[in-house]
Each structure stands twice: as C-alpha cells, then as structure tokens.
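re the bet — no i am not wrong, look at it urself. input seq straight from the record:
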Amino acid sequence: MATLIDAAEFTANEVYQIQATDPVEGAASGASFSGTGISNQPHQQLANRTAFLKQRQDVNIGNIGVLQAFMGAFAGSIAGNGYLKIPIADVNRGSIVAMVEWGAMFPGGGLDDDVSYPVTWPAAFPNACLWATATLANSRGRARIAKLVLDVVSFTTSAGIFRSAFIGGSDATQSPNDGFYWMSIGF
C-alpha cells in the first residue's frame, strides 16, 4: 500500500474539493497536481497541514517547558524578614539568579552606642552578597537632637553586621531608637 508523504506547510483556505466531473486519478508520474492525482490532492493538503500544525505544537511544547523552568526560578518569601529570587541574564556573568533580601532588627530596649548587631540573611546567597544597607526605625526619636547613625561593618553570603553610634554628644536617653530595617542584594 502506498502512502502520502507529508510536508510541513500550511495553505490557508485551500483544500481541493473533488468535483463531480473530475476523473478518479491516483498518484503516478504525469498525473495532475504534481503527480499526486486529483483524488489524492485533498488528502495531501490535509496531511501537510497536520504536519505543519504538529511541528508548531512541538515548538510550543518546548517553549512552554522553557517558560516553566524560567518561572520556577522565581522564588521567595514575602515576610517581615524575606527574600526574592529573580532570574536575569547579567551582561557580565551570564544567566544568574539575583536575590533581594530584607528584614528588621528590633533589639529589646532599642539600639545602644557602639554596638554591633549581626543579622542572618533569610536565605544565604549562593555566590556573593554585593551590597547591604540599613535605615533606622526611629519612632521614639526626638526632633532636633543629635541622632544615632548606623553603619554596615561587613557582610558575607549568609549574614551582615551593622554597627550603631550616637553622634553630636547624644545618648540613648536623649534620642532613643527602636531598631532598624535592613536590605541586601546578591546572587
């Protein structure tokens, strides 16, 4: 039994309709429709369309898999101390997963002068922590009095150390401070 060989091509709105006056003609050299024959032409066109659609479907399935893997790289924890993983194509490093982490440190009694406050990141950076910062949570601080400053002492892939210092001769009773919020970025 001979079979039609499909070719992945799509011809819009063109499937030959066999006319009542068409003679039955199968495939042969010299037959109409490039040797396919009138009787086989609609079947050939439909087989070609099916092959075309199957080819497109296979590409779509592959693309869906890539998109699912990409979406799977987004992860995080939206919490008080949380993080977000973001897949990116870094111009220097190639394909990486960037991480933004954040949190708060509220030691009982507030912050003191010249004290180091270690913070453990919610999720360790696999490669490096590139940057960290902190800002004071000064809900009890009095205006126009010298304030507390907070510096980043150091940071690693798993933690950061922040240090407090009073400036301008103030002390904890003059300018109390609840704690601080921090943020770090790495990959």
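see?? The chain has two domains: 1-72, 75-186. told u. also The chain has a mean pLDDT of 86. so pay up
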